[in-house]
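question for whoever is on the cluster today: can someone run the full assembly for these? two chains, 920 residues total. i dont have access anymore since they changed the login thing
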Amino acid sequence: MSENNNPTTPSTDVDAAHEAGVVAQADRFTDPGVPEHKPRLTDTDPQAAKRAERIVAALFGISALGAIGSLVAYFAFPPGGTAETRLSTLLFGLGMAVSLLGIGIAAVHWAKSLMSAHEYVDDRHPIESSPEVREVAITALNQGVADSGIARRGLLKGALVGAMALFPLTIAVPLISSVGGDWNVDKFRHTLWQRGTRLAYDPNGRLIRAADLTIGSVAHVIPDVPAEERLTHHWITEKAKAVVLLVRMNPDDIRSEQRPGGSYDGIVAYSKICTHVGCPVALYEQQTHHLLCPCHQSTFDIADGAKVVFGPAKRPLPQLPITVDDEGYLVAEDDFDQPIGPSYWERLK
Amino acid sequence: MSTTTTDTKRPAAAAPKTAAGKAADYLDQRTSVGVAVKEFARKIFPDHWSFMLGEFALYSFVVLLISGVFLALFFQPSMALVYYEGENPASMHGELMSIAFASTLDLSFEVRGGLLMRQIHHWAALVFMASIVTHMMRVFFTGAFRKPRELNWLVGMLLMILGLLAGFSGYSLPDDVLSGNGLRITDGVVKSIPIIGSYMSYFIFGGEFPGEHIIARLFTVHILLVPALILALIGLHLFLMVLHKHTQFPGGGRTDKNVVGYPLFPVYAAKMGGNFFLTFGVLALMGATMSINNVWNYGPYDPSPVGAGAQPDWYMLFLEGSLRLMPGQTEYVIAGYTLSLNVLIPAVIIPGLLFTFLFVYPFVEAKVTGDTREHHVLDRPRNVPVRTGLGVAFLTAFIILAVAGSNDLVATHFQMSLNAITWALRILFFVGPVIAFWITKRICLGLQRKDRELVLHGHESGRIVRFANGEYIEVHTPLDDQERWLRVNYDAYKPLEIAPATDARGVKRKGYKADKRWQRLSKFFFEDRVEPVTPSELAAAHSHGEHDSLGSVHEQHDALPAGASSTEQER
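^ ran it for u. tokens below:
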């Protein structure tokens, strides 16, 4: 049976196979043709057709009522607080939905129950153009090439290509030189932290006294800058690099630190920006000292130099070395010793 | 011939009398619209529910345009900071936020109908992507991408990618905490690209993340660049669809040389027009009853807070899951330069491979079948077991990645260990698609054998007859012409046959190695196959007598050639 079905000339069309002279194709079933048309109830029963007509008309009527209803809701129920806005949205939207669905169901029901259900057959023609058309097309192209003289005049070809290749630069150069700001990617390396910067609570900016932190407490920390500076957009960009998570644990629990001496009496501060792709690492588990990134679940062990214990990050969170000043406030001893956040090509250069 | 002569030549009877006729005449004299009407008014479209999936995509795009214009009239894409002066929602009053976020609140709470439009817009985006993906599944599994539609498949792929881009750029516009963290992930992914990563990050954000430009840039991308490209490609997609005429499912009278169905006017005008209103109506219902992306619950973007259990929109889940599954050990430092394969592989290479598979599949299949004919009759998925298996394997990988994108929710809902789920999904990502492929292929071959059996022996009638000699049989009813045709009308391709390595004179043939590779791939596709029943086989089955159907001996004998070919070369 398999030889009946030569893959190089298989065809679902029996006639075509005969035309191609493939004898083996003869052992295939013949197409029974388009199935006989079965009349619908609405085709044979005038009563049913009348009923369908009334249903379609009623659906259009419901749609009109929905449109009017939505306008009533629009004017009668203005938005306001969350609850009023919800109600306004609900009623206005329901009216709109009824008006739209009414039209849609009516049109489809009309088509399915009342419009002619006779199937028609159209011929398809090969997509490729006929040989005659192709010949005319090729002649036209050759004629055009000859008329333009581009084949004979090599100088023109070179000049055209050269000019076309250069003109995009007039757009690309100003675009590329401006679009990246100052292109100074070295900014990744520095944050607002420097020796003596005080640690402050995020977001209110209150300073943090070491004595106020009990063992087990966690604080989200920003560098202390003047309050008006925190109202600028520049601050958001700086904050995106400078945020720190502060944890006070039993000093004996600290197994290792990235920067020895960077902690103060069991208080450790690590960059809050994940070394994977930069989400804020915000879920701290007190018992295990694990810090979990909610975006991709990289897990860092704060008691062990913030090393990665699970997940897609490779590097530990950079540590911010801290101490206390004369007044007992926590201050940074230095900036981070490496770029915070996700890795990039020239990170170690 | 001058116009005056044409006019004088017009037969008087052709002069229109009715208002519609006069309007048509006016228009036709200036646009020759008659030609288009003649061509398209009674154009035949085949009918099938799955052909509506692409329509849903088109209509939800129209809804996106309508609701998007409304939103664009009120949204302000500025990152300048303001104190929110609106009274609603009360939790946001007096907060410092970007104008983008403030105008989002304003158009939700102060503009009448604004929240409805926002919710319709967001739901329409989700439905748009869902329709595109299911439409692609229909096209893939039925082989509608075969010649002459390969290029339209590519256009559709581009539309899908642009849809992702449109969704991503729009999602980030309100400048809220959730989408801001999404942008930060994007920044991290971009930075992982070797050599140019940092500069690409600056290119996108106009400096360091987040900077002050990104919202305005995304706005231009979202309302101008991407929709213009989508519109142009939809135009091309539909133009090619009309040019090729729609594919049709197999059935009596349907061949590669005709199209069987109903005329555009009036049946499809009503059905398609109605379908637009149905799509819009359902989206309005969703927007009215299901709140989505309540940004005032998240607050304006601030680089410090983050929500646990946050999910991206569904079409981005696979990327998120891919990032979550990758173990972190794969970041390397080579000669002082950092290569973050732990980000590059899941966020760039895996999606790249998935999309490449979809881009090249039609061309690979054309090559391994060696078939250069036009195909307008669709395949039943069972009749191309390897294609169907590959499609299901692809979907399995996609779904596993999407589940991984929700692994934290799975963990909290089912009280399971997050680490265990992640490990299980890491393994499943490799094993799952292989198993899915194998099972699907087996099911397809099984269904094909079932088809053979039905054609040869008919349907079980449930009627038990006892013969005089005490033998019981169940009477089988033979298939009618239409059903039999449906079950036998397909080609079972065989693996490619290639010319030998050396020609008649023993000279080595160029390109033999490449041919050999294609032949191997072709074998993978077609060495297990079930041939359709031929009339002579049916006649042979009948000659055994009407009550042969109980005898499993006959059945085995009949099914043997097909069964044997697949078992002896089990892979």
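summary bc i know u wont read the tokens: The domain at 44-303+358-379 of chain B is CATH 1.20.810.10 (Cytochrome Bc1 Complex; Chain C). Residues 73 and 107 of chain B are 9 Å apart (CA to CA).
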